[in-house]
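Continuing the series of single-chain predictions for the mutant panel. This is the parent chain; the variants come on the following pages.
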Amino acid sequence: MKTPLGTPLRILVHMDVRLRVSREMARGSLRYGAIGVMQRESTSDRGDARLMVSRAREFIEKNATNPAIGVRDVARATFASVRLLELNFKKVSGSTACQAIQDARLRRVCALLAETQTPIGEIAALCGFESDGYLKELFRRRFGRTMSDWRRAPPPR
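Parent structure:
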């Protein structure tokens, strides 16, 4: 950018800064060194942790059935790094973003088991699991019973 006189603005700014420093040095009042410690905005807790986790959960609920969705996608959707997202998830909910994705998928599995007669292999694909074998194992570990048992007698809501 040029000034009305045709001199580039960055040169004028640089000259102005040099002139100010020269004046301060002449008066003997130029200081240097640490004057304090500032916390980076990216790690400060300004109440944004709850908001970030809320937005992340909303994104997860809308997209959990997509098998390609992962923690990186959730972080990208919340404009955060994966590390910051995980720290905030742990702080706010005590769990991880990966766990939240898995929980959302399992809630959908339970709903489909209770409300439809869709084959279990199809339910796995509909809910974002790439392998029905993994879903069966995870379901049994989480709920202590098979998906077929759940379908026959779902717990009361």
